[in-house]
TrEMBL record:
This is Aromatic ring-hydroxylating dioxygenase subunit alpha. Residues 1-23 are annotated as: Disordered. SUPFAM superfamilies: Bet v1-like, ISP domain. The keyword Iron applies. InterPro entries: Cholesterol_7-desaturase, Rieske_2Fe-2S, Rieske_2Fe-2S_sf. PROSITE patterns: RIESKE. GO terms for molecular function: 2 iron, 2 sulfur cluster binding; dioxygenase activity; metal ion binding. The keyword Nucleus does not apply. It comes from Ramlibacter aurantiacus.
């Protein structure tokens, strides 16, 4: 072998000439008309806590769409396209009254379903014309302290689901809703694609590494044990079971679920008590490059959910210095550093990533079902449907 060839072999594998990375657009991108966007639009999504719908119009961005959320003085929440159907002024500057929201420019009034009720500059307040105008709008409903919206085709609107773990409260418990992206490990709005967090639910192996050996014990000691992990598709989601063998001979069985389309059914990693899952989180894709998480949980005291936020080096994310972010990374750093959308073409998935593969396959199947004209898994059109039950929870089992 020549000296030159030896040098080439020694330097092989450099980054020079590598192909441009790509991502799985059909799973990551959520805008109108995209495959995943159309799938997600067949479900209800939280767009705020109840207090976010008020007499002061609020800008919200959901699935790549900019909208205005408000509550009329009769107490009804509304979600409308921002640009007034008259001349396009933003209803963000509108004024809310008993019947709806009124545009600041010429005073056209729209109710929560977009019907034009008043045109004060027109003869007879627009009596002959206003019925021909409708402001684009979306259905909204309130449950568990959150405001949910349905952004899909009107003839395929499912019922807003109920969940057993939030319907049946134990003694002394109450529900609390939180908009601080608990589980995201960082600020309320996280600057990367929603799929990067949703897939994280199926990845139990990162817990003892990222949240244990690498950054120090962020939860409790037993979460630092390397688990035996199994996955299975059930109903409308992926069930993840992580079994940890405790030093005292008992078994710690932890079950999480990634529920369709964006539910994070994850029991508390601090394991304050054993039993069924305490809270549900909805991963809301704001657009292709941002998401946030809304959480509702059973709590003993107001503020318990906020106290669940992750800490690195004993500090909340926003309290860390840049050096500490580097020294004690958490979910935020691991997810956001993948890029605004992960470079799927550059991945090298291994056996521990079986759950990721299964979850992507499940999402792909639902995308194809919707594209073929069907209804995706997990939706119901029965107003009397029973609350959805999950197997998720922390369970401590004695040695046989």
């Amino acid at each position: 072998m020549s000296a030159r060839q030896a040098g080439v072999d020694a330097d092989s594998g450099t980054a020079y000439g590598r192909p441009a990375p790509t991502h799985r657009a059909e799973l990551a991108e959520v805008g109108p008309g995209t495959p995943m966007g159309e799938l997600l639009r067949r479900y209800w999504h939280p767009i705020g806590v109840a207090a976010d719908a008020s007499e002061t119009p609020r800008k919200v961005r959901v699935l790549g769409e900019d909208l205005i959320l408000f509550r009329d003085k009769s107490g009804r929440p509304g979600l409308v396209y921002p640009h007034c159907a008259h001349r396009g002024s933003s209803l963000y500057y509108g004024r809310v009254d008993e019947r709806g929201i009124r545009c600041c420019y010429h005073g056209w009034l729209f109710d929560v379903q977009g019907r034009c009720l008043d045109q004060p500059c027109e003869p007879g307040n627009g009596a002959k014309f206003r019925e021909r105008v409708r402001q684009p709008w979306y259905p909204v409903a309130e449950r568990y302290g959150l405001v949910f919206a349905y952004l899909g085709p009107a003839d395929r609107k499912p019922v807003l689901p109920r969940y057993e773990c939030l319907e049946n409260l134990d003694e002394g418990e109450m529900l609390e809703a939180n908009a601080n992206s608990i589980g995201g490990g960082g600020p309320a709005v996280i600057p990367c694609n929603w799929l990067q967090h949703y897939e994280n639910i199926a990845d139990s192996f990162h817990v003892p590494i990222l949240h244990g050996a690498f950054s120090g014990t962020q939860f409790v000691d037993q979460m630092g044990l390397m688990p035996e992990v199994s996955w299975r598709v059930r109903d409308a989601g992926l069930e993840v079971t992580a079994v940890r063998r405790m030093p005292d001979g008992r078994t710690f069985r932890r079950v999480s679920e990634a529920g369709l389309p964006t539910l994070r059914v994850v029991p508390s990693p601090r394991v304050g008590q054993y039993g069924r899952v305490e809270s549900l989180g909805w991963v809301l894709p704001i657009d292709d490059h941002h998401f946030r998480i809304y959480v509702v949980g059973r709590v003993k005291q107001v503020g318990d959910l906020a106290r669940m936020r992750s800490r690195q080096n004993g500090k909340l994310w926003e309290e860390l210095t840049e050096e500490e972010h580097q020294q004690f990374p958490g979910d935020y750093e691991a997810m956001v550093s993948q890029g605004s959308i992960a470079r799927h073409s550059e991945e090298h998935l291994a056996t521990s990533d079986r759950g990721i593969v299964m979850l992507r396959r499940l999402l792909q199947q639902q995308v194809e079902t919707v594209a073929a004209g069907g209804d995706p898994a997990g939706v119901s059109f029965d107003p009397e449907a029973k609350p959805i039950e999950f197997t998720a929870g922390n369970y401590l089992e004695d040695q046989d």
